[in-house]
Amino acid sequence: MILIEHLTKMRVNKHFFDGEKVKDQVFGGFCTCGGTMYQKIWFKVDNNPILVSECEKCWRNEAMTFNSTTLVKREEIEVVDRRDFKDLLLKILTEKEYKTIQAKWRNEEYNPSTLSNAKKKLELAGLALDEITGYI
Ligand SMILES: [Zn+2]
Fold this sequence. Notes:
Blueprint: E1 2-4, E2 9-12, E3 15-21, E4 27-30, E5 36-45, E6 48-55, E7 61-67, E8 70-76, E9 78-80, H1 85-89, H2 95-105, H3 112-125, H4 129-133
Parallel strand pairs: 1-9
Antiparallel strand pairs: 1-2, 2-3, 3-5, 4-5, 5-6, 6-7, 7-8
Helix pairs in contact: 2-3
The site of zinc ion (ZN) has 7 residues, from loops.
């Protein structure tokens, strides 16, 4: 699992899921370092709720997968921010498609059919072109 913090999305089995941010400070378990974790984002993947909590001490992010209300899995997750976002996108898009999106965003010339291929690939993966263009 990979958390894409700036999009409030999580990548699970090559698909991106939308999450819902927890606005208040709600207890989210104890970290392996002994610190307190707070609930950050809730996801729903294949009908199972997944909670991402973050440790206030070491900033470790953990995903807890529930089967309705029973905790079934707890694991540390990778967090991708804007800087690493390109690497993640290049697992879906080719370099050429990536550059095409960039060109459109910068109002430069681009190949519309390459753009439409890129858009299709993104949509299949659970990403919309509009939500990522500001970050590439
Ligand atoms: Zn910790």
